[in-house]
Amino acid sequence: MSDIELIDILSRDFDVLLDDADDYNVAIYAGKESEMKVLGAHSVVLRARSSFFRQALSSEWAKKKDNLIVLKKPSISPDVFKIILRYIYNGRMSFDLVKDNATILDILIAAEELCLPELCDCIQDHLRSNNDEWLKKNFALVYRTAAFNDSFKKLQAYCDQIVQEFPELVFKANDFLDIDERVLLLLLKRSDIRMDEVDIWDHMLRWGISQTHNLERDISKWTHSDFTVLRTALYKIVPLINFSQMHSIDFYNKVKPFRRILPTDQYEDLLHYYLVPGNQLTSARLAPARTKSSIIDWRHAALISSWIDRKDENISTSGFTPYTSAGIPYEFRLFLRGSRDGFSTTIFHDRCDAQSHTVTIIKVRDSFEILGGYNPLPWKKQGFDEWQETSDSFLFSFCDDTLQNVLVSRVQEVTRAVHSMPSFGPSFGISDLQMKESAKDNFICTAKRMSYERPIRKNKEAFAIDDYEVFQVIAKKNPAPP
């Protein structure tokens, strides 16, 4: 007979011990008064399996009644405690017998409270492997469970991945409106949420209005008192919204109608920022600088910022060190996203002309390849074949998500650094990176080295794109140390 078979027999015998014993010496009062049940157990088994029970059932802590050790646990329901007792006795966790995933989360919380780390790991692995869809739909509950408990590292890692890769799932979860404020604050303090700030603002308004219950849908009918109620609900939220990363059109359409819930000095500061070119914000700000790109994350932004500041020109034997996430000295303000705003040269010029210090990001179709370029000069559409001169522009490429294979190509022919034409989108050099409108494929692009140091693609053929974005890069007033 194998060792596994012997262990199975031992597990079965301990099942019998739990179910049929007449020598229990522990009475566990599980659940709150309305649902409380008394469960019998053996102290020797409990103490052998858990450090919690070793302390709770010790002579120093244990309380007795009618020759039984009495243990009260109102925080754990009888059904959950029965499942955990079964695990303590037979060493097995039978998920098929659990009625729903919410109960599995309750078992996880109880297992941590009862100091059963192996069970905690087992439950987290099960949830991640078998219940991905449910976790996403009930993200608020899952994140609240994991975020503030270091025993749930695996679930925390899962939540972090969702926030970084699929942030819209967080805000579109079935239970988003039930999310706890402290969980929301934890989310908003992150710099790696890859969403437009205006979309985050929309979701915060939706959450805030849901907390007040009685507000009209039509804000034109709101009274001063209504705005005061919403301002109170979002008092801690508003400082964590990065309003300066919104496009001016979005600020006008989405923020201005709710200006009365913002502090007056902050709103005036933002108004000045949007109306006066080059003006910097003066009011104190707590909001993190989010990359808010659907193509790149903070790692790409850190490298691009490092190239703008020419950190790569001070290369030691071990290579150059790019900025950290906290040390990025620039804000990336989104001007344009093709999939959101449209793929046309007219839209590009309407949104980006006269704007300087811009970064163009291109996602190549059917590949992991990301290309782009930095233009310190204002874009123009007037004239034909107009060249702009600068020695500070550069092109770059990221071949995959690992960032192990990256390339930067600085301008050589400075008199042909940037190319402006009404029929072209962002264009660098003679043909080093060009975007031309196409009725069939959004934009058709070429990347043939002519005016820059090196080619950013091996393939010289024209290529289509999945999406592209244009950001304005704005120096932070008080950047963190690099």
TrEMBL record:
Family matches, as PROSITE patterns: BTB (PS50097), TLDC (PS51886)
Endpoints of the signal sequence: none
Residues in BTB domain copies: 24-97
Domain TLDc: 294-474
Name under which the protein is recorded: 9097_t:CDS:1
Source organism: Paraglomus brasilianum
